[in-house]
Write a structure and sequence with these properties.
alpha+beta, single chain, 6-stranded antiparallel β-sheet, 29% strand, 18% helix, 5-stranded antiparallel β-sheet
Length: 240
C-alpha cells in the first residue's frame, strides 16, 4: 500500500460525504464496538448513476456482503470492491431509521435543544449530505449497513446480531470508479439498545495497489469479471 493516507474519526450519530478517486481505498474501523455505517454511492460525473442493491446481490448470489464482493451501480459498473473484511457479514437490505422511529425507540431529542447529543436518524442524515450535491429524497437508493449482521430465523423474521462487531473490526473498500460516497453513523433499524447508540468509526483513506489477475474480487464470480470489463470500457480514452 502506498504511504499516502488520511485519517479521521466520525462520531456516532453523524454523517459525512466525500468524492473518492478510482484507485483509492477507504478503510472503516469500528472504534468501540457495535458500530453501524450506512453508505450510498453515486457517480460524481453523472449523479443519475447510483448504487444498486438488487443487482449487487443477485449477480453475486448473496444476501450479505464480505471480502470478494463488488458493489455495483445501476449501469452494471463496479463502484468499489471489498478487499478486506474482518467480520464476514454486512447488511444489505434493512435501510434506515426515520425520525419517527428514533423518537419512538429512544425519545425525542433535537439539535436546537440538545446540540450534538441529539438523536440523529439515518434517513435525515443521508438527506443532509445529498442536499450538498443537489440531490434529494427521490435520489435516495437502498443503502448498505457496514458492521451490521442481519439474519433470519425459520419463520423469516429478521434480527440484528448486536454482538457481532467488536472494537477494531474493519472493512476495506477499493474504489474501481470515481465515486461520491455518502455515509452516516446512525443506528441500524433493528438496533434495540436501551439507549441511543453512539458508536464512532475511524476512517482511513489511501492508495490501492493495481488490480492483479489473481484478485479475489475480480475472480469471485464471472459477473464480477464482466463488471470490471464494463469499468474498463467506461474509462477507455478518458485518461487516468
Amino acid at each position: 500500500m502506498n504511504n499516502q493516507s488520511y485519517q479521521t474519526h466520525i462520531p456516532g450519530g453523524s454523517h459525512w460525504s466525500l468524492r473518492l478517486r478510482r484507485g483509492t481505498t477507504l478503510t472503516l474501523t469500528d472504534a468501540s464496538g457495535g458500530a453501524n455505517v450506512g453508505m450510498l454511492f453515486y457517480n460524481p460525473e453523472n449523479l443519475l448513476e447510483r448504487y444498486n442493491a438488487p443487482d449487487t446481490l443477485k449477480c453475486q448470489h448473496t444476501f450479505k456482503l464480505t471480502r470478494g464482493h463488488c458493489l455495483y451501480s445501476d449501469m452494471g459498473r463496479i463502484f468499489a470492491s471489498v478487499i478486506e473484511d474482518s467480520l464476514g457479514w454486512h447488511d444489505t437490505v434493512c435501510g434506515n431509521l426515520t425520525a419517527a422511529h428514533v423518537a419512538a425507540r429512544w425519545g425525542q431529542r433535537d439539535y436546537q435543544n440538545d446540540r450534538n447529543a441529539w438523536n440523529q436518524n439515518g434517513h435525515d442524515a443521508f438527506l443532509v449530505e445529498l442536499e450538498k450535491y443537489g440531490l434529494g429524497p427521490r435520489d435516495m437508493a437502498a443503502n448498505l449497513n457496514w458492521f451490521s449482521a442481519v439474519k433470519t430465523d425459520a419463520e423469516g423474521n429478521l434480527s440484528l446480531d448486536a454482538a457481532q462487531s467488536q472494537a477494531g473490526a474493519r472493512v476495506v473498500l477499493r474504489f474501481e470508479m470515481d465515486t461520491l460516497v455518502i455515509l452516516h453513523t446512525c443506528p441500524h433499524p433493528l438496533n434495540s439498545a436501551e439507549r441511543y447508540p453512539r458508536c464512532p468509526v475511524k476512517v482511513e483513506l489511501g492508495l490501492a495497489e493495481p488490480v492483479r489477475e489473481d484478485d479475489v474480487c475480480l475472480n469471485h464470480c464471472p459477473e464480477n469479471r464482466r463488471g470490471f470489463d464494463n469499468n474498463q470500457l467506461y474509462y477507455f480514452g478518458m485518461g487516468a
